[in-house]
Design goal:
- This protein is α+β, with helices and mostly antiparallel strands.
- It folds into 2 domains: 194 residues, Ribosomal Protein L22, Chain A, CATH 3.90.470; 124 residues, no CATH class.
- α2 crosses α3.
- The radius of gyration is 23 Å and the shape is elongated.
- The chain starts with 5 loop residues before the first strand and ends with a strand.
Amino acid sequence: MKNVPVFHPWSVPLVGVELVMGSLPFSDAESSTVQEVRELGRDCARQAAAKLLNDPAGELTYSSSGAPLWTSGESQGHLSISHTGHIALGVAADTNVGIDIEFFDRDVRRLVKSFTSGEAAIAKQTSPIALLCAKEAAGKAAGVGLAGSLTRWHVFSFEVNKQSLLVRDRQTLEQWRVWIGVVEVEERLLQCAVARPAHFTRAELDDIYETTRVEMRPFGSERWHEGVGEVRKRALSGVVITAWNPGPDRPSLTENENANGLLLSRLREYCSDIWEADGLSPDGIHREPGFMAWGMHPDIGIRIAREFRQLAIFYFEASGKRVLLSA
């Protein structure tokens, strides 16, 4: 009969998160079954949830998508489980959460071939295994796993001071902040990643705005024009505005498209010269649709932006100078 698994409480710099790591006794590691390790993971998750909700008498249930939940009275915690070898880690959080662990020395040379050039650069700052764990954790937090493809999950930023990565789901455009860390277990290093929805501060959103590139084109055209150059060419000022992803929110693709349709109708009440205008991330991978209202006064643009819960707009002067205006 196997000995009782050893549990290791482990704290991370995340509010509203509890983690519990467990391992089967080293002497039993090679003979342990997949089912035993999975049960160990569930035990870890139960302990983490009991600590989070301060109630050991809760119940482990599952959502319609198969994600584990811990219910205690009217309170509910979101759970995630990961295991590798004879080690398991369970996490409980007050929002959607995903966890992944892998031994740091795992051979991932085949998998890193799927990295973009930007991801390869980030991997040099951290490690390839950190990016792979981050993608897996983000997929779990989204409730779909990797969904069959590493390339669906794009790592686009590394924040050294927070030891976290930002991961974007290319299908839904949802973004996840993934805390990464390495812990030593039985003289081996274990890469850990914990993913939660990315809620940006105002300062972080301002940074995103400042680094955004703008491309625009007339409706019906297939060719995009670089924003500053096109404004200089026309020598005409205007406002660039979107209804996409208001503030820190990340609505569904359908909700975003519907909001942009309402925004276009609103803009046409004030302006007859409107182009498509998309904001792009510096690497060009993320794109948010919007509109350029030529000749619109910035005060009108700000007022409309507030109606659609946007934090800022771009105002282009006729010289091509771009100004970020807070809404």
